Amino acid sequence: MRLSTDVTPAELQVFLEETEEQISLLDRTIVGLEKNGADPQLLQEIFRAAHTIKGSSAMLGHQPMAELTHAMENLFDMLRKDKLKISEEVTDCLLEGLDTLKMLKDELCSHQEGNVDVTPAVARLRKAAGKASTPERHRSWDAHMPSQESGLRTSSGRVTESSAESVSDRTLGSLAGDGSYENRQAA
User: Fold this and answer.
1) What is the Cα–Cα distance from 117 to 103, expressed in whole angstroms?
2) Whole-number Cα distances in Å, 155 to 103, 140, 178
3) 152: phi then psi, degrees, rounded to nearest 5
4) Which DSSP state fits 94?
5) pTM assigned to the model
6) Side-chain half-sphere of 164: how many Cα atoms within 13 Å?
7) Which of the 8 DSSP states describes residue 4?
8) In the chain, count of helices (H) and strands (E)?
9) To which H or E segment does residue 31 belong?
10) How does pLDDT run across 110-152, given as a tens digit for each residue?
11) Residue 161 contacts by C-beta under 8 Å, 6 or more apart in sequence?
């Protein structure tokens, strides 16, 4: 697995610790959604957990993890906006995504190239989300990622592709308050 070459061992360790915390939260709460219903506060909390992992993994250059958590985040977003109802199928998709996410994290912990394929889990998550989405809302992961010619725009200003690879943890916290960003063409 290819990570940004600017990632230090200390930054990777912080990422792994934070990711473990977010995975634990997801692990505790996904099954509870089906049992206890879609509590808005709980949905917001688990949406943020997936969003945090997505952003951090993308900044590290771990595209499979970012793609997987993006698909999970989309499903959580539909649930919290009441555009999709929690069901056994949705819960199963989220649990499959969570299991795949754990395998990706374990690969990073072992420092070994793995063969975890996120494609089946992502496809299943997107299929579940597609049952409630319209074409305008269901955009591919590629539409959210900067191309070679583009940079990221945050509330604090433009971040170029090359500088985005070396963004530190403190910079992650300075992204837009809601964590959103827009893909913009470089000037």
Assistant:
1) 10
2) 33, 23, 10
3) -95, 145
4) H
5) 0.69
6) 23
7) -
8) 7, 3
9) helix 9-36
10) 877 778 999 999 999 999 998 765 444 334 444 444 433 333 3
11) 146, 148, 150, 151, 186
